[in-house]
Amino acid sequence: MKRIIKNENSQIVVGKLNYPANAPEIRTILEQEQNGFCAYTEYRISAGFSTDVEHFNPNLKGSKEDNYNNWFAVSHKWNNFKNNKWSDFQPILYPTDKDFENRIFYDKEEAFYLWKENDIEAENLIKLLNLNNNQLVKERKAKIELLKTLFSEQEKEISFKKWLHHPKSKKNLIEFRRAIEEVFNINLENE
User: Is the CB of residue 114 less than 8 Å from the CB of residue 105?
Assistant: First the structure.
């Protein structure tokens, strides 16, 4: 999972869009701002993918405090993992926290997300969102292994970067971006 950066000039903010009245439009804008990926799993959002406007703090839903900073486009399945568990995982690290990637780490060998000892907020986020779900871990591992086999063993990092710059690379289709960035030591946002 990567930190989600909110845009103070988002069409949602500028257009003063409200939930639930503008839910479909909000979902579409959030998907675009998140580069077409689920905020939690980093699965690619596609035509067969059921996406929700997720209210990260469900206690805010329907209140005046519920706004753009609490909304994310997420997989319906992963949204349901949180269902009725919010109070069990407090305090919690927000996906927009400026230190997010210094508090949640990706284990390259096990394909798990880890946290620093005693960082209860980071631990709670990982557990609440079920980021180390067995199936999700298997799929992250499989994606990394596939990419490793596509590029020569000696020049994995160089070959991967060359591919990303190729006009037909379709890098916007790459799932599990945080895992790939960690394993290949690259920044997909800047490539």
Answer: yes
